[in-house]
Specification:
InterPro entries: AB_hydrolase, AB_hydrolase_1, AB_hydrolase_fold. Pfam families: Abhydrolase_1. Residues 43-272 form the AB hydrolase-1 domain. This is Pimeloyl-ACP methyl ester carboxylesterase. Strands 1-2-4-3-5-6-7-8 form an 8-stranded mixed sheet, sandwiched between helices. Helix 3 (115-126) links the parallel strand 5 (108-113) and strand 6 (131-137). The chain is of the alpha/beta class. The chain has helices at residues 58-65, 89-102, 115-126, 150-163, 168-172, 180-190, 204-218, 246-254, 270-273, 275-287, and strands at residues 20-25, 28-35, 43-46, 70-73, 108-113, 131-137, 232-237, 259-263. It has 10 helices and 8 strands. It has a single domain, classed as Alpha/Beta hydrolase fold, catalytic domain (Rossmann fold, 3-Layer(aba) Sandwich). Helix 1 runs parallel beside helix 10 (275-287) and helix 2 (89-102) packs across helix 3.
């Protein structure tokens, strides 16, 4: 356990102020940030493709951290965490399990987005006893139709973004229309709110390995998600070009008793575009 934990600290509920911490497990140093009141079941955030600790929208994390112990982390080989990114989603889930148990938790809630949602599913399938509640956003099931096309979409939008000197997420996460463009800019600006102690960017090699893992996940036989008993909240925009929106409906059908929210006129980043609506829903779901 890292020595830089102080129990007498005032409770931090703004992600931009969350201290950067590390924990060592299985020869890997995992970088993470924690905030919110300690005690109770923590909410662990599983981040998206190419993302580091700096990619979480504070308008989503902060409302949850007002009432819950929140932990965001860089999985192996990502950002400031050491080691190499594995080339399968299942191995990423094993690393996440290593990280969570290294912090001493035996029960967590999960908030996941995109690739993070794949990893979350693989984790809950293997360790159902670890997870109390599951939030799956902008994601889809193993073997989901067209998940293996993520790489092509991503590279195309990176080119489009480079041509306009924009952040690729403006193209990948949002519609290029009158509502999507300002929402995209607002989101990208919110990610800059933290000014001190920023994370290391993901390496090209790590990013390419993640894409390879996503392709394999998309082409694999589906997991039996009917066994899941965890309360599950599923959300997306109605026009997700990265992980097609129909896959959120597919997940909803596969997971008994799950709740589904599809936001209109929005893309992969629908929850970020509609954060004012979505954050209270997530808070209420976790509090139940």
């Amino acid at each position: 356990m890292s020595t830089n934990r102080h129990t007498h600290d005032a409770i931090i509920t703004a992600y931009k102020d969350a201290p950067a911490r590390t924990v060592d497990a299985n020869g890997v140093t995992y970088a993470y940030r924690e905030l919110g009141p300690k005690g109770g079941i923590p909410v662990v955030f599983f981040v998206h493709l190419a993302a580091t600790l700096d990619n979480w929208d504070p308008r989503i994390i902060d409302p949850i951290a007002a009432e819950h112990h929140v932990i965001a982390f860089d999985n192996r080989g990502v950002g400031a965490s050491t080691g190499r990114v594995p080339d399968s989603v299942e191995a990423m889930a094993d690393d996440a399990y290593t990280f969570i148990t290294a912090l001493g938790f035996d029960k967590i809630d999960i908030f996941s987005f995109s690739l993070g949602g794949f990893v979350a599913q693989a984790l809950v399938v293997k360790h159902p006893e670890l997870v109390r509640k599951l939030v799956l956003t902008g994601t889809g099931p193993k073997g989901g139709k067209n998940i293996d096309k993520v790489a092509g979409t991503t590279y195309w939008d990176m080119l489009r973004a480079a041509a306009t000197r924009s952040d690729p997420k403006e193209f990948l996460f949002f519609n290029r229309n009158a509502t999507g463009k300002p929402a995209a800019r607002a989101f990208v600006n919110r990610l800059k709110e933290r000014t001190a102690d920023r994370d290391a960017p993901i390496t090209v090699k790590a990013f390419q390995t993640q894409l390879k893992a996503i392709k394999t996940w998309g082409r694999s036989a589906p997991d039996d998600l009917s066994k899941l008993t965890q309360p599950t909240l599923i959300a997306n925009g109605d026009n997700d070009r990265m992980v097609p929106s129909v896959l959120s409906e597919d997940l909803h059908r596969r997971i008994n008793g799950s709740e589904l929210i599809i936001y209109p006129d929005s893309g992969h980043g629908g929850i970020f575009q509609f954060h004012q609506k979505f954050a209270p829903v997530a808070v209420e779901f976790l509090a139940r």
